[in-house]
Design a protein that fits this description.
Length: 126
């Protein structure tokens, strides 16, 4: 089994499309006002947005997008007016990450982990 598709809720799919296009995702399905799907620039994953009447309560959804050029990508987005909760920072779990929220307050983490994503020093071997 492999994970290849993630969908997040949105009150305004059209507004979210603009945001995710700025992040660099490629729009491949636009079924307004209810749905949109993107493909990631690297790999084979897709990401979509679906319209909801109300957003989930609590912390909501966390979505991680990895890029080897994290600092450069964040600088590009800041120059385009995207606001970050925190700029790239080295984390204790050996990832470098920046955090922001999409228009519906879904937590978006841009990060680079390299081999540490799947093979951290504390990995459990079966």
């Amino acid at each position: 089994m492999k994970l290849n598709q993630v969908t997040v809720p949105s009150l305004d799919v059209k507004k979210s499309i603009s945001f995710y296009k700025k992040l660099g995702l490629r729009l491949i399905v636009e079924a307004l006002p209810h749905y949109a799907r993107f493909e990631c620039v690297e790999g084979d994953s897709t990401f979509s947005i679906h319209e909801v009447e109300t957003l989930p309560v609590g912390d909501g959804v966390y979505v991680y997008f990895e890029t080897e050029n994290l600092d450069e990508e964040v600088s590009r987005l800041v120059a385009e007016g995207i606001q970050f909760e925190h700029l790239p920072k080295d984390q204790t779990w050996l990832w470098r990450e920046a955090r922001l929220k999409d228009p519906d307050h879904n937590q978006i983490i841009l990060f680079f982990a390299g081999d540490n994503r799947k093979d951290p020093p504390w990995r459990i071997d079966e």
